[in-house]
Design a protein that fits this description.
heterodimer, A: 113 residues, alpha/beta, Glutaredoxin, 4 helices, B: 307 residues, FAD/NAD(P)-binding domain, seven-stranded mixed β-sheet, 6 helices, 17 strands, binds flavin-adenine dinucleotide
């Protein structure tokens, strides 16, 4: 499990439940490395600002993370973390490698809220 | 707009800024640290710090979290992941606006904004970030298992990361702009004796080639000016750090390399403005030296406020 203050998704069932029962979901799938930590940090920061978006993480090396590692929107991704934005159960955007707060906010504003 | 006044504002929550925050808050000064990125700054990039005295070995993130806790427990406020949108350091009362919607004023400011990785500046660099361009071997190395990659740079980071990548990749070409390395003898020897590593020296990458992903690079020989192309599956970039001084380059005296000039008391050219850490002009950039600068800047800022 990742050592962040975000909620962790710990199974495929939970993943399906999360994206289906929430309108707006951002999930960061990564490890505890230098490219991932800043993204979790931004997400923790944005949790307060965007109450209608749910923020989660998923451990990249966990068996159930295949749902995101091999997600169709992540094709060609070769940089951690893989970050996904779901609206009504559908991935509307995904990014690879580190993103800063401004980039993440822009995506949330454009695709989620 | 809501304006909040502090005795001291520190820009940057890396080792230098957090240390300054600890000292200022402990002296009962109302202190705010404003940080553009994540708390810990470059420390977060280090998986295992083994040379910070008093700590046997810990991840840079864990050390950062302890420093943050210390600063907060002494009463320091911290705003992180914000953007500085306005700055006035010249007046006696310093003013800093963040995210276009909050204004803070203070009597002293400590600039501890550290450094950021230098980009190569080659064509298509942003397009291929995460699609064949990486800045972190330990993070992304396993995506390149049995592939051929390039490492750009000639310092300790480039050579050490190249050696660490050899556990995944098939081959590594180190592309470096000079004919010699700016690294320790040990790092050079380890890279040179590794069979998977070869070198293209006095050359620079000018363009990343490919459709969806990096498939090759265009390289210019610095001596002859000639261009050539090299096929590759990925490029890891380690070309050093540049100081974060964009926000105050017109106000604060900087060196040719854009580092902040200070005296031995960490005083800048402006009264009431001090600086600490990697952003300052100096030769050795380590956590220990950042912590030392932060201490000196804070104690001198306290003295300044008392007079
Ligand atoms: C890969 C790597 C490994 C390293 N390993 C070691 C090691 O093992 N041991 C060691 O002692 N040292 C190591 N170092 C060096 C050490 O990490 C740095 O010297 C030290 O952390 C610098 O601290 P700092 O506070 O000066 O700056 P930084 O850590 O760069 O912190 C500056 C902070 O300011 C923020 N900021 C930037 N611009 C602004 C702005 N305009 N306004 C507000 N905030 C801003 C940044 O987001 C950042 O959080 C390593 C460095 C790297 C890159």
């Amino acid at each position: 499990m990742l050592g962040t203050n975000l909620e962790h998704i710990k199974s495929v069932e939970e993943f399906n439940e999360v994206i289906e029962s929430n309108e707006n979901v951002m999930i960061c799938c990564g490890r505890m490395g230098p490219m991932c930590l800043p993204v979790y940090d931004v997400m923790e920061n944005l949790e307060e600002k965007y109450e209608n978006v749910k923020f989660y993480d998923m451990e990249f090396d966990a068996p159930h993370a295949h749902v995101l590692r091999n997600h169709e929107s992540a094709s060609g991704f070769m940089g951690l973390p893989f970050t996904f934005y779901f609206k009504n159960g559908k991935a509307v955007k995904a990014t690879t490698s580190i993103q800063n707060k401004k980039q993440i906010k822009t995506i949330i504003e454009e695709h989620l809220v | 707009m809501n304006v909040k006044h502090y005795d001291a504002i520190v820009l940057g929550a890396g080792a230098a800024g957090l240390t300054a925050g600890i000292y200022l808050a402990r002296a009962n000064l109302k202190t705010l640290i404003i940080n553009e990125g994540s708390i810990g700054g470059q420390m977060v990039l280090t998986h295992a710090v083994a040379n910070y005295p008093g700590v046997l070995e810990a991840s840079g993130r864990d050390i950062s979290l302890i420093m943050k806790k210390q600063a907060k427990e002494f009463g320091c406020d911290i705003e992180s992941n914000v953007e500085i949108t306005k700055l006035d350091l010249n007046s006696n009362k310093k003013m800093i606006e963040i995210d276009d919607d909050e204004v803070f004023t203070s009597d002293v400011v400590i600039l501890a904004t550290g450094g950021k990785p230098r980009k190569l500046g080659a064509k298509n660099e942003d397009k291929f970030k995460g699609f064949g361009i990486s800045y972190c071997a330990t993070c992304d190395g396993d995506f390149y298992t049995d592939k051929d990659v390039i490492v750009v740079g000639g310092g300790n980071s480039a050579l050490e990361e190249a050696v660490s990548l050899t556990k995944w990749v098939r081959s590594i070409t180190i592309v470096h702009q000079f004919d010699n390395f700016q690294a320790t003898d040990h790092a050079i020897e380890q890279a040179k004796k590794n069979d998977k590593i070869s070198f293209i020296l006095e050359s620079e990458i000018t363009e990343y080639l490919g459709e969806q992903q990096v498939e090759g690079v265009k390289i210019q020989n610095q001596k002859t000016g000639e261009f050539s192309e090299l096929k590759t599956d990925g490029v890891f970039v380690y070309v050093g750090y540049i100081p974060n001084t964009d926000n105050f380059k017109d106000i604060i005296d900087l060196s040719e390399r854009q580092e902040i000039l200070t005296d031995a008391n960490m005083q800048t050219n402006i009264k009431g403005v001090f600086s600490a850490g990697d952003v300052r002009i100096k030769k050795i950039r380590q956590i220990t030296t950042a912590v030392s600068d932060g201490t000196i800047a804070a104690l001198n800022a306290i003295e300044y406020l008392q007079n």
